[in-house]
Amino acid sequence: MITPPHTTRAAHRRILSLWFPRLAAEDVLRAAPGLGEAPLAVVGELGNLRQITSLNLVASARGLSRGQALAEALTLCPDLITRPADPERAIQVLAALRRWAGRFSPWVAEEGPDALLIDLTGCAHLFGGEAALYDQIHHDCADLGFSLCAGIADTPGAAWALARYAGGGGTTPTRNGDAIDQEARATRSRAQRRHWVKGGAAPQPHGSGPRGVARISPPGALRQSLAPLPIAALRVPPSTAEGLARLGLRHIGDLWGVPRAGLARRFGQDLVRRLDQALGVEPEPISPAGAPLHFATRLSLPEPIGLEADILAGLDRLLPVLCDKLRARGRGARRLRLEMIRAEGGTERIEIGLARPTDKPDDLRGLFALKLDKITAGFGFDVLRLTAPVTEPLHSTEHKGGWAVAAEAQIKAQTARAPGQALDDLIARIGARVGLDRITREHPADSHIPEKTSATQAAAYSHPATDWPATHRPRPLTLFRPEPITAADKPDPPLQFRWRGRSFETTAAHGPERIAPEWWLDDPQWRSGVRDYWRVTTMQGSCIWLFYAHGAGMSGGWFAQGDFG
To answer: What's the gap between Cα 428 and its chain centre?
Structure first.
């Protein structure tokens, strides 16, 4: 029998769950308040299906719901206003709310894309008690423009359930064939006369918990608070909740007298584990996100500036301060952003990337100077702000030996750069002009197909490859996609052929080298079957890599794929 203990390890623990059911849609309304009177939905993509991920209150009143296909939503609400989902923006908004929630407790964790978990143990009395803190949080969220559902209990699972299912809140209802209100009129009449003996009382729709259940559970009253809530409040899959409903188990309290072994055998261990977590029998720790490393510095100017020399002078004051902050944490900057705020409003931004982390101002100043000619100063800038959004650990080089040897090594390091460091600096300077992503290098790939033996990677985020496998046969300097040539259709090397509008005569041919396709992959370029490669020298002086395709799903023939130069 499931009999929760009278005293659990969670008896003195208090958890607050914050759920923002309309977070993405209301974030859009904060930027565009004029859309508040119209139905609004944020649309995301799941595979090839476009569905609603968030919607405002007006859209909910029109009968729309989260997870609904966009085509169906537009049929129900033709004047629906849609905005594309922005996952990066959603992460930033939730992180900002996490920082805001830090005023109530230092132990705050993000839960999913639209919820927070807060450990209130020992903190509620600072705000006048849990009820006063509960009201303060709702008042703050109303000022921020976000809808909120909150719950306070002894465990994270119970707080999660109260936030979403107590007090009549929740999501859209789910149909259940056992409910009276979903039966035909005659069936409902018979069921009411019999007091619905088949399955007990008609269940509450999923997501609309009983309105008599308070969202703040008194300490030690987990059973009483959870008993009237639907099974879905245990964070179990919908299929589990529907299966229990067919057995007449529609509320969490219905599980108290059911044998644990039978539940686990029929519905899996997850149901029992979620129940134990909600009751505090099985511990469920809260892992708060650590404070992100933030490196920034700011310079306010008494008079606006607009000349490149003045901006560089401001950088000369900002860069040493920022680099000192990086050096104190043992990190180097990989990406920096300079924000210049105009006196009349508006901001100009310059962003640079580096091929290696650095904490030296001299390495950064020249890269910013390369981009200053692209800015528009207007009436001048009165604020400069320098940030390092991307950093990496930077390990200093330790010189072994006496102090004289170390000093000499340090002097040499300042006057000369290692070859690898010089290459990284060159990549950074070129990347400041054309973009770091456009500078690439090749790395070996695990394939015997000629065009798949290398993989292209960004040079700024990869190291030079040193593990190139030795080739038993020479490969052309230039490799391109197979191009058909005009030659006799036979496996022997052609004595004469025509390629790219020119005629060639063969003087020597080395081969063949047979290469078979990757049979475990369906590559359209290799549907012509097995290939015999030849290195053909022509009378015109060209050395071309030809192959004869023996044909398979497509007809074969002679093709050119490389030039030895």
So the answer is: 27
